[in-house]
Write a structure and sequence with these properties.
Layout (H helix, E strand, L loop, with lengths): L1 E5 L2 E6 L5 E3 L2 E3 L3 H4 L2 H6 L2 E7 L9 E2 L4 E5 L2 E5 L4 E2 L5 E2 L2 H5 L12 E3 L2 H17 L3 H9 L7 H23 L3 H8 L2 E3 L2 E3 L11
Parallel strand pairs: 5-8
Antiparallel strand pairs: 1-2, 1-5, 3-4, 6-9, 7-8, 10-11, 12-13
């Protein structure tokens, strides 16, 4: 993307090469491919440089709107400081209830909005349930057929899923803030192996 700068002010954004009239001169679209950066700059056209220093993963943060600035012969696209999403539930207060902001019947301490922890734990529960579902029939059969027992590998797998999911939920619950939650989910590579502090739910080996 390019920007047209006139009198040190960004006056237009150019999303793709096209012919343009600047001043009294008509310029063809091919100037974007054959002219050097300095030649484009001389007529007020600058490539937009993105500075993503402040841009954060939107799973964990609320980013500001992007902004554009022209300074030191450069047009820069950037963001302000991102705000971490709430890691814990937000609760209704008595003042909010008194002011009529809460739904009728709300009590102090009721959940206003769910935080990241709640949503992440619900996802872990759903994933664990999805892993257990295909082997549920073993357990059902064992309760209905007196001489049938769940195979040991199935029992071990089901127990390991529950154990690991409980461990993961505890890790999430104990995270002190949003950056700590993000760290739990951040993969790193050691000796060619990717892993994350949260770990992974086990899978049933064939």
């Amino acid at each position: 993307m390019y920007a047209l700068v006139t009198n040190n002010e960004i006056t237009k954004f150019i999303n793709h090469p096209k012919s343009m009239v600047i001043g009294d001169v008509q310029y063809p679209a091919k100037i974007f491919s054959v002219w050097s950066a300095s030649e484009l700059n001389a007529i007020g056209i600058y490539e937009v440089i993105t500075d993503s220093t402040n841009f954060k993963d939107e799973k964990w943060y609320i980013n500001t709107n992007e902004s554009y600035a022209f300074a030191d012969d450069q047009v820069t696209r950037s963001w302000g400081t991102a705000t971490p999403k709430a890691h814990a539930d937000t609760l209704w207060t008595q003042d909010e209830i008194n002011d009529g902001d809460a739904p009728e019947g709300t009590s102090p301490g009721d959940v206003k909005t769910r935080g990241l922890k709640y949503n992440l734990i619900q996802t872990i529960k759903q994933q664990a349930s999805g892993l257990l579902a295909p082997t549920d029939w073993y357990v059902v059969k064992a309760t209905e057929v007196s001489d049938y027992s769940v195979p040991s590998n199935i029992s071990t797998f089901r127990a390991s899923v529950r154990t690991k999911s409980n461990e993961m939920e505890t890790q999430i619950t104990n995270a002190s803030d949003t950056p700590a939650l993000e760290t739990l989910y951040t993969y790193t590579t050691t000796d060619g192996v990717q892993s994350r502090p949260l770990g992974e739910l086990p899978t049933l080996e064939s």
